[in-house]
């Protein structure tokens, strides 16, 4: 009886501790960034890059689910600046999304403080500067979100010895301002000149110092993101298989791969066992689907080894079919917990009725001799007054009009219309979005504010009959999806996060030229339960300068 009483008392104490923890504010992590230009020699010639606290790539944000992240950004560039937190859902808080449609830019020689939470999120993400072509100059860094201590991680013990970030991306030797001028003049960017791995370009050689060190018998986690602007990349480690464990915030079925395609804007995690003969091995990233392929490599060294890497570096796979089949092999781990203790598979997305289908076909055309991209005949342009601020202050007239683009492409391809492209979605409705890419090159699409289920893809044009090919059980929940040339990809999601959210191409040339739109999701209750008021420190510009604040949203009930 005494043992039972002690057990009951212990249970009460544990419950009390959990309740106290639930009532407490989540921990804060503070960062101060000084953003400057610097000079790096990457592909044989010095060029201007964007540094954060002198670092290239920028510093890693390593945090736990629900931490409060406070980043004070000092813009010491000669241009306006914004940072976007790629894959962060910013629940109820598109005010911190860091895009021209949601935020006034940070002027040169001033600062702004971002505050956001990876609310109910875990996984691998990254940030980047979002104005113009600044992303092509660097300023990117990793965001890694680990589970809270009470949430089990679906890895076999012991835990990984180390948790490494690998930022891979294509690289141009042109200055980012020169790239913007080329696009403004109607010219394309052409092919990238090289590939970088964690800010280091080109192939390593046998005498290169190691980027990573292995201890035989240990397991290592590699978090890989393609932070480039155009090229899909294939990632592999010489002589080692990789166990896929996570993609953009979702635990996956842990299948083994000898190489993985990582498309622009995509992130994933793998576990690698140090189970080979001690020596040096190459970690390799190579461009895919473009002529005159480029590669970069780095050295992984087993501790105490002096054996050089083998010159036989594995070649990347060829063709689109291999890549599509690999995508079809990715599966959601239905029994694992993510940021919450309930299993991921407890959300049965395949049993929810679709309330609306939006078919977005990539449009390409010339206006005054200059190339433009868009969706469904509409090419987006940014506005002096950010769309979210114009909506919040009810001064949209003269800034943008809603729903100038239809849910289906026009029957006849006419000239592109260049306008701010904002469409609306009814709050908490379950919507299917189909992307069609009629171009001869790859596309990669991203949706801010949400994770979605990539349920299907295939060649040619989409039709409703193709829904029978969808994966309605265990498609991975994520925020990016690739669309192969002359092909389609389909996603499903519930629009339950109020705010102004960007849907865009990750191919930054296309994005810059208008292949993006904003989705306005408004709660009819106008309640703080669903969306936060504009933060007190929000920058103002355009038409909202000097205006009185609108009434607060209603208190949460």
UniProtKB/TrEMBL annotation:
Keyword rRNA-binding appears in the UniProt entry: no
Transmembrane segment boundaries: none
SUPFAM superfamilies, A to Z: Cupredoxins
Keywords for this protein: Signal
A Pfam family reported for this protein in Swiss-Prot or TrEMBL: Cu-oxidase_2
Signal in keyword set: yes
Domain Plastocyanin-like: 35-147, 163-304, 385-524
Organism annotation: Urochloa decumbens
Signal peptide: 1-24
Family: Belongs to the multicopper oxidase family.
Lineage: Eukaryota, Viridiplantae, Streptophyta, Embryophyta, Tracheophyta
Name of the protein in question: L-ascorbate oxidase
PANTHER family with a match to the protein in the record: MULTI-COPPER OXIDASE (PTHR11709), OS05G0485800 PROTEIN (PTHR11709:SF478)
């Amino acid at each position: 009886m005494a043992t039972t009483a002690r057990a009951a008392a212990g249970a009460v104490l544990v419950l009390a501790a959990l309740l106290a923890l639930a009532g407490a504010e989540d921990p804060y992590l503070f960062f101060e960034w000084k953003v400057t230009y610097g000079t790096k020699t990457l592909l044989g010639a010095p060029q201007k890059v964007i540094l954060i606290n002198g670092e290239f790539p920028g510093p890693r944000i390593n945090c736990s689910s629900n931490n409060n992240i406070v980043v004070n950004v000092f813009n010491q560039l000669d241009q306006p600046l914004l940072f976007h937190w790629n894959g962060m859902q910013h629940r109820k808080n598109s005010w911190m999304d860091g895009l021209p449609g949601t935020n006034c830019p940070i002027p040169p020689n001033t600062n702004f403080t971002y505050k956001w939470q990876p609310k109910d999120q875990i996984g691998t993400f990254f940030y980047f500067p979002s104005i113009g072509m600044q992303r092509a100059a660097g300023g990117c860094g990793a965001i890694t979100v680990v589970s809270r201590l009470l949430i089990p991680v679906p890895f076999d013990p012991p835990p990984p010895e180390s948790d490494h970030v690998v930022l891979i991306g294509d690289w141009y030797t042109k200055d980012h301002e020169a790239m913007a001028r080329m696009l403004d003049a109607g010219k394309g960017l052409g092919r990238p000149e090289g590939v970088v791995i964690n800010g280091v370009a080109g192939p390593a050689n046998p005498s290169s110092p190691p980027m990573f060190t292995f201890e035989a018998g240990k397991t290592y986690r590699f978090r890989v993101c393609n932070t480039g602007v155009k090229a899909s990349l294939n990632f592999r480690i010489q002589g080692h298989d990789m166990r896929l464990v996570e993609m953009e915030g979702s635990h996956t079925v842990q299948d083994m791969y000898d190489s993985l395609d990582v498309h622009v804007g995509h992130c994933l995690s793998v576990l690698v066992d140090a189970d080979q003969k001690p020596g040096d091995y190459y970690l390799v990233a190579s461009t895919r689907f473009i002529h005159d392929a480029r590669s970069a490599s780095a050295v992984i060294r087993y501790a105490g080894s002096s054996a050089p890497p083998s010159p036989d570096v594995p070649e990347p796979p060829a063709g689109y079919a291999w890549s599509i089949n690999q995508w079809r092999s990715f599966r959601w781990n239905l029994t694992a917990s993510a940021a919450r203790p309930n299993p991921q598979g407890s959300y049965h997305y395949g049993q929810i009725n679709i309330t609306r289908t939006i078919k977005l076909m990539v449009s390409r055309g010339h206006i005054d001799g200059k190339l433009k991209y868009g969706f469904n005949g509409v090419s987006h342009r940014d506005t002096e007054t950010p769309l979210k601020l114009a909506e919040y202050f009810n001064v949209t007239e003269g800034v943008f009009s809603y729903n100038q683009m239809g849910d289906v492409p026009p029957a006849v391809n006419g000239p592109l219309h260049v306008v701010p492209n904002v469409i609306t979605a009814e709050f908490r409705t379950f919507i299917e979005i189909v992307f069609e890419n009629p171009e001869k090159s790859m596309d990669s699409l991203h949706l801010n504010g949400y994770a979605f289920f990539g349920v299907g893809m295939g060649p040619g044009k989409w039709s409703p009959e193709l829904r029978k090919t969808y994966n309605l059980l265990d498609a991975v929940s994520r925020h990016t999806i690739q669309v192969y040339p002359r092909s389609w990809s389909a996603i499903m999601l519930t629009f339950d996060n109020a705010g102004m959210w960007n849907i865009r191409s990750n191919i930054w040339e296309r994005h810059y030229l208008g292949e993006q739109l904003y989705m306005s999701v408004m709660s009819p209750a106008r309640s703080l339960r669903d969306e936060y008021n504009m933060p007190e420190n929000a920058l103002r510009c355009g038409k909202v300068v000097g205006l009185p604040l609108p009434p607060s949203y209603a208190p949460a009930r």
